[in-house]
Amino acid sequence: MVAMQWTPDATIKNAFWIGGGQWAGKTTVAGILAERHGLVHYYYDFHAARAHDDRRVAAAVRQGGSFQATDWEKVWIGPTPDQMASDVLASFRQGFEWVLDDLRGIGTAHPVIAEGWGLRPELVAAVTDPARMVVLAPTDEWRRHQVAHLPRAGKISHRVSDPELAGRNRFARDRLVTADAVAGAHELGIRVIEIDGTRPARAIADDLADHFRLGTQP
Q: Is there a domain that residue 65 lies in?
């Protein structure tokens, strides 16, 4: 991998992006590519659950609101999956501005590989070449397999009155969010790779390396 001249905007423009559904292997694949090709791995979920959440609270306070602990019953039990998906997608638009701030602050001459379900095709395409993005979309069958065999893939970590209903709502919400990413990718000419559990992560990484023209594995 040839190093580039670093500028804040170049970090964004020259990044590679992996979006798509939850539990599609985005983090694993990005880690493989980072190790193979000397990329800097930007882990969206880590930032979204920490610094971005703090920014969200601070923004609400600045606008005259006050901090209130999240009512997880209203998150997982009250709304329909359609409402849940709509709320999540709206949060991604705000969060993406913070992603761009994060990337501008990464002072490296090496390209960044950014991955996460909040990196939506229409948002990424607005700041760089859509060819620099790939969407990974898990099939329903693969997600059901994960829920059945990998407890953390289906578990709701928050205390709610009906964990089984919450889990079903989450599954339906995630299906809708994934479908939205796939539809957006098709509209923008962004490559979509279906993940059904039949191919190892390294094979998926090979596909992305070829797509991004990262060169041969050292």
A: yes
pLDDT digits (tens, 9 = 90+) for 162-185: 999 999 999 999 999 999 999 999
pLDDT, one tens digit per residue, over 177-207 is 999 999 999 999 999 999 999 999 999 999 9
- Beta-carbon-side half-sphere exposure of residue 13 (alpha carbons within 13 Å): 8
The number of domains in the chain is 1
- Express each pLDDT in 54-99 by its tens digit: 777 777 667 776 667 788 999 999 999 999 999 999 999 989 999 9
Most confident of 46-60, 90-104, 126-140: 126-140
Domain that holds residue 39: 8-212
Please check whether residue 217 lies inside any domain of the structure.
no
Please write down the HEC assignment for all residues of the chain.
CCCCCCCHHHHHHCCEEEEECCCCCHHHHHHHHHHHHCCEEEEHHHHHCCHHHHHHHHHHHHCCCCCCCCCHHHHHCCCCHHHHHHHHHHHHHHHHHHHHHHHHCCCCCCCEEEECCCCCHHHHHCCCCHHHEEEEEECHHHHHHHHHHCHHHHCCCCCCCCHHHHHHHHHHHHHHHHHHHHHHHHHHCCEEEEECCCCCHHHHHHHHHHHHCCCCCC
From 77, 194, 96, 185, select the one nearest 143 (Cα to Cα). 194
